[in-house]
Design a protein that fits this description.
With about 350 residues, the protein is an alpha+beta fold. It contains 9 helices and 12 strands. The chain has 3 domains: about 100 residues, no CATH class; about 130 residues, no CATH class; about 70 residues.
């Protein structure tokens, strides 16, 4: 019985008569504080001067405590029992009126995790908390990690945990420099196991499938060449590097910090995903034309026709720093063969 329920019963009987006697029997002389517990068969309380108060609705939830003290012969004992009757509800109510314990409720909308709360990626300068985690990832806002680690450090972190994929959404612009590329070129033939890198946007995640230091170095180099890392959704399933092509690129222009025509195309396709459909031998055929400049490349994406040589074209310029600009468009059919089309003039 709760304090409120006890006080309700006591009050009902006091107002029904001077001395409420609850139906039931308590053998012998028992204190008011140690009643004999029983449940009235009719679910009611008898008060001699006040009639019967029906408690059918209460009897479904708790058994009513009944007691009947012997009528005392000593005036002192009567006074003591009356005093107890007066103080009893005050004692019971004091439990209800006591201050509530301080609530630790964080408020609406706050998720209370079980166990230790995960540390945000940006608050941790090490890669330990990211290995094998699908709910945390590196992004270009994680200045703590990227401010203290170069690409070779990142590659070494991947080598330390080869069976735990690491999620990376993006890296800061310019994080992979030409000097970093030179060091990465020394690692592209390594077969040492390393953790694969996966974008959180990827539907594929390698489990217990390690990559290699060489493959991850090539993945970083691809990011350097395209100006975006990761350059693919996953360094294993979506990435098929050609080491001989990478060596050729490095010897011709990578070593000097320039880009070749393939780099220019990759950069544009990473910025404009619809251009990834070029080139294609489907219908209509799609082709790409490039033209070198002093500090970059002109690139044209051409849609060829069956009866007419060119149906449309989009033209861009990419400088050696990877910056791009739109230079023109052909949105009508023209009688120019694709091999005669000039990406510089876009005509």
């Amino acid at each position: 019985m709760t304090p409120n329920q006890a006080f309700f019963i006591w009050s009902a009987c006091v107002y029904g008569g001077n001395h409420a006697i609850l139906s039931g029997h308590a053998p012998g002389r028992e204190s008011l504080l140690s009643p004999s517990w029983s449940r009235p068969s009719h679910g009611s309380i008898d008060c001699p001067a006040g009639g019967i108060i029906l408690l059918d609705w209460l009897s479904h939830f708790f058994a009513i405590s009944t007691f009947m003290p012997d009528i005392p012969q000593n005036t002192g004992l009567v006074s003591l029992e009356i005093l107890i009757l007066i103080l009893l509800p005050a004692v019971l109510l004091s439990g209800c009126m006591a201050p509530s314990p301080v609530s630790n409720d964080p408020g609406l909308g706050t998720v209370v995790p079980s166990g230790a709360a995960p540390t945000p990626a940006g608050d941790n300068c090490r890669l330990d908390h990211l290995a094998g985690r699908g709910d945390e990832y590196l992004s270009n806002g994680d200045s703590c990690y990227f401010g203290t680690h170069r690409p070779l450090d990142f590659l070494d972190d991947l080598r330390m945990r080869p069976h735990l994929p690491v999620m990376v959404l993006s890296v800061p612009d310019g994080w992979i420099t030409r000097d970093d590329a030179e060091l990465l070129m020394q690692e592209i033939d390594s077969e040492i196991p390393a953790a694969p890198v996966v974008s959180p946007l990827s539907s594929y995640c390698p489990l217990e499938e390690p990559s290699t230091v060489g493959n991850e170095a090539l993945f970083l180099l691809e990011g350097y060449r395209t100006g975006r890392y990761p350059p693919r959704l996953c360094s294993l399933y979506y990435f098929k590097p050609d080491r001989s092509e990478v060596w050729s690129w490095w010897e011709t222009c990578g070593r000097t910090g320039g880009i070749d025509d393939k780099d220019a195309i990759r950069i544009l396709q990473s910025i404009y995903p619809d251009l990834s459909a070029f080139p294609s031998e489907g219908m209509p055929p799609l082709s790409i034309r490039t033209e070198p400049a002093d500090d970059g490349w002109y690139v044209a994406f051409i849609q060829e026709g069956s009866g007419l040589p060119i149906l449309s074209a989009r033209c861009y310029y990419v400088d050696n720093n990877g910056s791009t600009r739109f230079t023109g468009v052909v949105n009508r059919s023209i009688m120019v063969l694709p091999q005669d089309f000039s990406p510089r003039r876009c005509s």
